[in-house]
Specification:
By secondary structure, the chain is mainly alpha-helical. It has two helices and no strands.
């Protein structure tokens, strides 16, 4: 289960990085896509740090 949490944590980071790139790529072309990609990228970064915090919390509470 610990491996699954680590994989999903980094999956969110990869998605956030890709969406950050897409936000930069469409910056001047389409304002609505820029806002959408930017918001999703921020949510991806938030999920990365949340999953990281939660995984460490579980490891502290259950060291098995």
């Amino acid at each position: 289960m610990k491996t699954y949490f680590k994989i999903t944590q980094y999956a969110y980071l990869l998605i956030a990085l890709f969406l950050t790139y897409e936000t930069y790529r469409v910056w001047g072309d389409n304002k609505s896509k820029t806002i959408l990609y930017g918001a999703l990228a921020l949510m991806g970064y938030f999920m990365f740090f949340f999953k990281r915090w939660y995984r460490k919390k579980l490891e502290r509470e259950n060291p098995n």
